[in-house]
Amino acid sequence: xxxxxxxxxxxxxxxxxxxxxxxxxxxxxxxxxxxxxxxxxxxxxxxxxxxxxxxxxxxxxxxxxxxxxxxxxxxxxxxxxxxxxxxxxxxxxxxxxxxxxxxxxxxxxxxxxxxxxxxxxxxxxxxxxxxxxxxxxxxxxxxxxxxxxxxxxxxxxxxxxxxxxxxxxxxxxxxxxxxxxxxxxxxxxxxxxxxxxxxxxxxxxxxxxxxxxxxxxxxxxxxxxxxxxxxxxxxxxxxxxxxxxxxxxxxxxxxxxxxxxxxxxxxxxxxxxxxxxxxxxxxxxxxxxxxxxxxxxxxxxxxxxxxxxxxxxxxxxxxxxxxxxxxxxxxxxxxxxxxxxxxxxxxxxxxxxxxxxxxxxxxxxxxxxxxxxxxxxxxxxxxxxxxxxxxxxxxxxxxxxxxxxxxxxxxxxxxxxxxxxxxxxxxxxxxxxxxxxxxxxxxxxx
Length: 446
Prior knowledge:
The chain has helices at 11-42, 45-62, 64-81, 85-120, 125-140, 142-157, 161-185, 189-213, 229-263, 265-302, 306-343, 347-360, 364-379, 383-409, 411-435, 437-440.
């Protein structure tokens, strides 16, 4: 079904347009999950804890590509809605150049400083070797990781979400197959898992460059451009909310690891790793929907179509809330088999992981609403409100909850922390939506 950004979106059209992006995000999440599965089962829980300890840092440096992609695609989508196709392509090309340059700088920095960073994150002597090996290989090819995040957003803006999906499927399948070969068959340990991931990321991040360099049937193509600092700054500021979300989530993940080491030791960090893999799968659905709908919202905002903005907001709230309830029940049903799949070799760890999953899953009811609220304002080119929602939700509310609730509830308080944060965040999201209605008319539609 060929669907254009300018159309009126029914639930059916939203489903078809966003499904490739959701599937794309699900495939992307397989990188970390496949690494974790093979490392846990073939190398052991210490190595498993090591890659989970260093992962928040790797996510931080990789998500600068997500910032440029979401902020840049919002600007490009708005420009397309205004009918300025050539300008949109110049902006798009500039975003790709920025990602490559920034990626190379961050790759060098990550490679050089991974050991002290691992110690700072709490790595023990038993874990430090695996942290450094995994971190250095992943950091060295961080540019491809950033490009993959960038193109996930721009494939949707180019009206080619299906192509983005197939590129990501190829990358994900390569990662899984190579994990089985490098870790399972050749016993390369965490180094094998890292090489499997970076090869998959190169497929997902480099292949799209060749597509957009050549004449193609999409709305976008890489063209000659020049530095247009105001547009670049606007895109980065607008996408800073998504960067803030990911950095904050990684910081909170670091705090979780510190708290879990304190309350449950190495088993707590390993259990949290399984919880995070489950979270990645479910969060990918919400993030995929947010990425998929953002260009639609940006386009209609640029075209001044308030009625369609209202339509997108109403339908998205229904879908996010319904999806959150469905995912809560899925998590409860899958808690036991998922725990057995990742850490079935340790009965005590299985019991701890299953309990953690069931408590943590309650947060999914509101998670999608808050993710969409932040993405909605990014799509409207209002990076300030989007960043405020993200900052309060992740860095303020989650940090406070993960530090305070364990004092009251012990270990269970760590697992309840994210739910408490999502409750406060949904109230803040509603307040911002109400306060900004007069600027965008997404509630009245006129």
